[in-house]
From TrEMBL:
Binding site for 5-hydroxyisourate: 62-63, 164, 181, 236-237, 263
Keyword Oxidoreductase: yes
Function as written in the Swiss-Prot or TrEMBL entry: Catalyzes the oxidation of uric acid to 5-hydroxyisourate, which is further processed to form (S)-allantoin.
Enzyme class: oxidoreductase
Keywords, alphabetical: Oxidoreductase, Peroxisome, Purine metabolism
Family in the record: Belongs to the uricase family.
Name of the protein this chain belongs to: Uricase
Subcellular location: Peroxisome
UniProt EC number: 1.7.3.3
Sites where the protein binds urate: 62-63, 164, 181, 236-237, 263
GO molecular function terms listed in the Swiss-Prot or TrEMBL record: urate oxidase activity
Amino acid sequence: MSNKIEGFNFDQRHGKQRVRVARVWRSENGRHSIVEWNVGISLLTDSVVAYTRDDNSDLVATDTMKNTVYAKAKECVEELSVEDFAIRLAKHFTSLYQQVTAAIVKIVEKPWERVSIDGQPHEHGFKLGSEKHTTEVILKKSGALKVTSGIEGLALLKTTKSGFEGFIRDKYTALPDTRERILATDLTASWTYPYESIYSIPQQPLYFTERYSSVKKVLADTFYGPPKEGVYSPSVQNTLYHMATNVLKGFPDIATVQLKMPNIHFLPVNLSNKDNTIVKFEDDVYLPTDEPHGSIEATLSRFWSKM
């Protein structure tokens, strides 16, 4: 929050980070569900006297914010999405405290997945997955809303149908052209919704959770291509663009999508000395390395989207 103090511009916010909470729901039929969230809260206020004078009377204690997370989780008697929980928290802080002008709630969901035993989903057994579901909700006291969802750590790899050629060459270029390489990345994706108030959000249960699963599937399917023949990738940039385009084409309720795709290298092994080749490899043994790696990212949005 920006304020004018003694001839200076003063920006401030305060909050609580890394609040970990788990919530279990137990249905009457015996099936359990669980979520584990890592919550971060930032409150924007007009209160500056805690900084400029010895006066904390306008401050919401960060310990209170932490306790609010647990209390609000208890109030959720039915399973809900991480986005909906972030909206509930933001609404609480902007409506209860007069001095709070906006709340920013960021949550990372730990990927607990239901296990199957002998082909049957377990009633109360879960295993830890890989990629994480993320969200950021910004809610102003006026009611203006911005909801962003995302994925962290979606590891994707294909062993063929990838190349890179025709790039700029100069005296520092050592990379050869290729039409055959492993393509691997650790995808971070985020997308924003067009909803500008809480009341414009679809009221169907677990709407955001279902959309997250659908977007993740589109991203992976575009990366891999059809199961038999796959799809050729002439560059990470080209694959990224098609992934982002397919998200916007497939989901009219998404306004903007941002993808970050590091190019994680698998280097063909070559064992040789100055006299001869010690072992002849045929693109079947590789040295995996993620340092250094290529860094490719882009944002695609609709013309009417507010960035």
